[in-house]
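Please, structure for the following, as tokens.
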Amino acid sequence: MLERLRHPDDLRQVPPVLLPVLAEQIRQLIIDVVTDVGGHLGPNLGVVELTIALHRVFRSPHDTLLFDTGHQAYAHKLLTGRRTAFARSLRQAGGLSGYPSRSESVHDVIENSHASTALGYADGIAKAHALTGRADRCVVAVVGDGALTGGMAYEALNNIGAAPQRPVIIVLNDNGYSYSPTVGAIASHLAHLRASTPGRQVMPGTTTYRIAPTANIFEQLGLSYLGPVNGHDIGAVEAALRQAKRLARPVFVHVVTVKGMGFPPAVDDVEKLHTASPRGTGHGAPATWTKVFAAQLADIASRRRDVVAVTAAMLGPTGLRAFAEQFPDRCYDVGIAEQHAVASAAGLATAGLHPVVALYSTFLNRAFDQLIMDVALHRLPVTFVLDRAGITGPDGPSHHGIWDLSLLGTVPGMEVAAPRDARQLQELLVEAIGHDCGPTALRFPKASVGAVIPALERVGPVDILAGPAEPDILLVSIGPLAAECIEASRTLAAKGIGITVVDPRWVLPIPEELLALARSHHCVITVEDNARSNGVGTALSQALTETGCRVPTYHLGLPRRFLSHGKRTDMLAEAGLSASGIVQAALDAWADTRAGNQETPS
């Protein structure tokens, strides 16, 4: 049946009695593909029936369907003509994205995986429809209960509820989780609403819903409330959605689902199978950067009672789960609310504690104002630990952490470290938490840690990893790219080029010792897995210029564009950040230097 569905219009021709069979086919395909290649499993299994109902009641793309945090959109992809691509290329380079993608389909209106934004889009689209005479079009936003822990959702609700003439239908996919269990007062309120019994029978043979007989926040904000509805009963969901459509005003439809529905392992261990790793990984895998950080933070906290941890709905992914179990009164999960996480951390630091804020690199973007004005301006000792820095791989542009060095380099008083191996991560975390006169940050990738790379010597904070007979090229390695730089240096040395490989460790602001090393070489090359513009390389060039040094500098990094999904190693190689790419760039730079741009080392 699924193979015959080329367009949502086809779905509306399927007899209702066959819809459970279709749901099972969709669910089985998701399980087969995701357990083979990896991807978001639990969230997508939970919304199969809901997605079928949405596409039967509303006519995409005439009606606008928005999925907040797009990791619940697999069934949507399958019902909009992408079954073959889904089965063959999900999250593979050049293949189907794991999130909605405007380049894939007219049915994908927004391509987001940062939560709590869809209601803002819905408000804006509804306003545009009102202004342009498209009142016949519905705007429907599907949000998870976890997304309602984010402040942006309430900013949008504040506007949507105040405009009864603009119909926006908000469908809450309530399964009690974001990545982790939904936290805070909103979780308690939704639980209270789930326990209520809505009025259902309006006339014989008609199932409908009215406002639940209990006070709720959504009514107070000006929305009609329908539900709670069993999200795995397609007929019941369709009835609620049709009634919401008839009301022609802002409506909140409360749909209750089971995350991981239809796959017992995903239901039994919701957090573990929020995502699934590709088949053949996970057993006997080397330690990850996240695990090394988690163990070291717990060790530090056992000796320092002022150390507390803060995260935004990411206890498990950022490694804080064990910390929360060991120090339950010193670990704060604030929900999907990065701005609040940073402002709250500022409060913790103001009161004499040392907060460690663990976030994905790309999610720190959402709290940049708080980082500058609430932490840095007050010179507060807050340590930011940025997981998933650099290329993350199959999650695509919204998850690649390729802006943190560019952003953090503009923050007065911010000191940024990039460890090259597990030992340096442990050492630098101790140093960061020991820093008490301003903010610090550590960044590391979504990857396994490699072998420990010893230093030949340390000059100030800078480690010398390889040294030449002649000071031809200074190769400045940022973080875990040190191994590639050392391998490249061996090839270059065999070609008669003197290479010094250094790891600054504390990469921003530029250490004075690194400037001195740069001045003693004929050519400098920086290597970083951040956007090439405005990263460490740019900062080093500027610092050298300000000291009057005109040594040629070259920057290897990631291009200034949104990067698609693919394997981390392949994407780094494509950007010239493999050993062979570094060798070629060094040869070109050395030829250019010798051809006329050579400076006499000072």
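Residues 76 and 467 are 55 Å apart (CA to CA). Residues 199-207, 598-602 have pLDDT under 50 and may be disordered.
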